[in-house]
Amino acid sequence: MSFSIQVNEQPFDSEPRAGQCLRTYLRERGWFGVKKGCDAGDCGACTVHVDGEPVHSCLYPAVRAQGRSVTTVEGLAGKGGELHPVQQKFLDAQGFQCGFCTAGFLMTTAALEQEKGGPHDDGKLDDLPRALKGNICRCTGYRAIEDAIRGVKHTERPCAGKAVGKSLGAPAGPQVVTGAARYTFDVEVPGLLHMKLLRSPHPHARIVAIDTSAALRVPGVHAVLTHEDAPATLYSSARHEHPTEDPDDTRVLDDTVRHIGQRVAAVVADSEQAAEEGCRRIEVTYEELPYVTDPEEAMRTGAPVIHEGKGPEVRIARVENNVAGEAHGEVGSVDDGFAEAAVVHEETFRTQRVQHASLETHGCVAYFEPKDGDSGDNSGDNSDGGTGERLTVRSSTQTPFLTRRALCALYGLPEDEVRVVAGRVGGGFGGKQEMLTEDIVVLAALKLRRPVKLEYTRAEQFYGATTRHPFTIRIKLGARADGTLTAIQMRVVSNTGAYGNHGPAVMFHSVGESFALYRAPNKKVEAYSVYTNGVPAGAFRGYGLGQVTFAVESAMDEMARRLDMDPLAFREKNIIGPGDHMVGPIGEEEDLHIASYGLAQCLGIVRTAIAEDRSTDDVPEGWLTGQGTAMAMIATGPPGGHYADATVSLLGDGTYDIAVGTAEFGNGTTTVHRQITAGALNTTVDRIAIRQSDTDVVRHDTGAFGSAGTVVAGKAVLLAAESLAGRLKTFAARHTGVARHLCALEAEVFDCAGRTVTLKELYEAAHAEGAQDEITAEGHWGGSPRSVAFNAQWFRIAVDPDTGEMKILRSVHAADAGKVMNPLQCRGQIEGGVAQALGATLFETVRLDERGEVTTAAFRRYRLPQYADVPRTEVHFMETTDAIGPLGAKSMSESPFNPVAPAFANALFDATGIRFTEMPVTRDRVWAAINGSNGSNGSVGGDEAVGG
Questions:
Q1: Does the pLDDT at position 597 exceed 70?
Q2: Distance, CA of 742 to CA of 750 (rounded, Å)
Q3: pLDDT tens digit string along 128-182?
């Protein structure tokens, strides 16, 4: 058969493989702007135009493109490089964060713009819920995308030295909107082999035998790896600066499987198809073992022991009771506190598993390059096995340095022989603070001395990656008649799944700031992180605080109503103040301080919103309306140390270079680091380049997690930039013979008492004198001391009692972020956090059956928020300046998520009189509760499958 196709006006005649979709055909020919998000037509990241019509290329057979013209995002721009109007609008509005979905939105919007005013215009551009129903964004909350489509410009271009506090666009913006930004797999690696994983069909079993002979006979298969090929070393997939925070309970490939979906074997082949066929040919003999999926049952005597035989050296709290970690503590006496209370309220709350659903799935590629060769990202097929090679791992990770450290420890490799680099990362949300693919890929690469790639499917993200921890929280509050809290007590059980990665740490964090937010003389907690035979949980935005905050803020709302008090007034009476110590029952964190206090301002914003609200004016007759508030506090960085090193240098052309380790995945740190440097060096951001997230070219960085990008890495950048400014001033004074105080640094020159010296001239002079140390400076920050950030969320909602339909009439979020470095990006982080939290509140849930098997392993079965689901949230920044954070800034990536669920639940109670105690509050559950099908005491939970 003859085949011809035009792609971005370039002819191609190579025939597609049998059954090949257009997405893979295009990517194999270098059109990397076409993304893989789901391979099921659910997310729209792969959207291209075929003869001008938008199609999901993951569903479109490549053979159907015969004789047609295909346009990808790379082909939108003009031949001279000028941006398409839609690309320019997305750039001006910053209509993206991580950018992985952006090509899909651009292609959809461009097609609608082309139809506008024509015979096929059906008005979709005026009906964005309908127009964008085939596109998903996990980061932005959609407001920025809507503004881009409507042509609203948000980005600014400040003058020299004035970048901090301005809404600068992301430096990678032009690459994102043109499809030139390079994510993990957007590189060509010659000689690449592909890996696929065989996964367990059993919740708990011992592998008796594995026969790989048939798999090895599949044409194109190079190797089949089993537990016999893997190191016996135990480790944790979680990445922390201090590995002892997590139990070492994991092997690369284990001879015991502990959840359905655990990897059993890896097949490496010339193609994914051959590797998949190899997996099908492996014969495994299992001895099935008893299993347990409920954490309460797992802790009982006689329950199946999931990690039987592991000793104290792996740091599991109680192996025999499946307790990965536990915390017990009391301040004062809660018995006395409840005895003196006029009102006591006690309730149990449950939260479910939630998937991170970052559109770029987990994956990496490992290859070898000469030790003394080019350190670029592309690799030749250096498969001679010689000693002159070093290993490079290109990964979708939030923690390049910690991943390198773990790989070296696991395989006994020197750190200078391993390089880990993260390209642009397509979303993280904590899910990529793990080592889930690098360990197995490196095992194969070391064995074969060939480049090896593993890219998770969307289904594997659900049963082979991690989820948010499901929690059960029993909370008891006591208060005097005047509303003064006398006691807070909680029993918290967190289901960590089959492995304890992040389990104990999430548990400890969940009962930290959530307790400390309110003053009470008597506090008590017992908390457990419990193993079960289910998909492992891990780090997720909020790191346990969101789950416990749902319980605390719902219970506080209920207590206020039982005291016949205004819920806001009740909170104001009991919240900590600017001079208070943050006291929790498991001890006070000595390095944690209230270095700025905006909580009272946050509650003031809510009061104003309530007083001025008119959103109920157009509510249909018969609908119920209600409003609700919740608030939260979070530390501006993780405990125990979070380290960042930065270097800022003057370059030969008179511009600057930043080298810093933190990864960029839509969190905006790249922009902020340039803004900080521009302010310190009195220049403009376009004169500053940045190198990051590559262990070869930057110094150590713990990682892009714990909201540390600004307050830790940003602080290191600030220290380096300020140090460089001082060194340059000293050198300029010496070079010109002018007194130092008369030398002023400007955007491109020094003005030394009227004599102008260009930065380029200073660079040349430094090199001529051998004074290179004068034109570079380093900064380090260890993440301590830490401050706290505050957030408050308010909703006004309407509920149709006849159908259970819920509408958010108004959403207001007050954020105490200290000095806001970039209002545009910070607002985007808040809007995205609110949208993600609304998904977890209203419909998202990873469901497991009675055997612990995930039954929602696709976007169409696991519903994500779409444009039509997310309201425009009014974001308000408090006027505070932090005494610890760089230039007065605080973190604001995780914290917006935490108060959303309880604020919505409180509004739902206000509307219906029913207290919903389980997430998510789905429409059918609301309808059943209103119509008496669920509960009779005013509190409604859910079915056991949720969070089980």
A1: yes
A2: 10
A3: 999 999 999 999 999 999 999 999 999 999 999 999 999 999 999 999 999 999 9
What tokens appear for 887 in the block? 């230039």
* DSSP state letter for 71: E
Contact 923/869 with Cβ under 8 angstroms? Answer: no
Q: How far is CA 342 from the centre of its chain?
A: 43
Find out whether 192 and 448 touch, Cβ atoms under 8 Å: no
Q: Are 468 and 353 in contact (CB under 8 A)?
A: yes
> Tokens at residue 362, please?
């987990």
Q: CB atoms < 10 A from the CB of 529, how many? A: 31
- How high does pLDDT run on average in the chain? 95
pTM value is: 0.96
930/923 Cα distance (integer angstroms): 11
Mean pLDDT of 487-509: 98
Q: How far apart are CA 860 and CA 870, in angstroms?
A: 18
pLDDT tens digit string along 245-270? 999 999 999 999 999 999 999 999 99
Q: Which residue matches tokens 């951001």?
A: 685
DSSP code of residue 867? G
Amino acid 558 reads E
Q: Minimal CA–CA distance to 649: which of 694, 687, 700, 701?
A: 687
- How many angstroms separate the CA atoms of 158 and 155, rounded? 10
CA 52, CA 523: separation in Å to the nearest integer? Answer: 64
- Beta-strand pair 471-479/343-351: antiparallel
User: So what's the pLDDT on residue 579?
Assistant: 87
Q: Which residues pair with 625 in a beta bridge?
A: 798
pLDDT single digits (tens) 722-743:
999 999 999 999 999 999 999 9
Phi and psi at 129, nearest 5°, equal: -55, -35
244 contacts 485 by C-beta, under 8 angstroms? no
User: CB–CB of 680/744 below 8 Å?
Assistant: no
Cα→Cα distances 784→565, 593, 638, 706, 781, Å? 39, 10, 9, 13, 8
Report residue 802 as tokens.
Answer: 């006849």
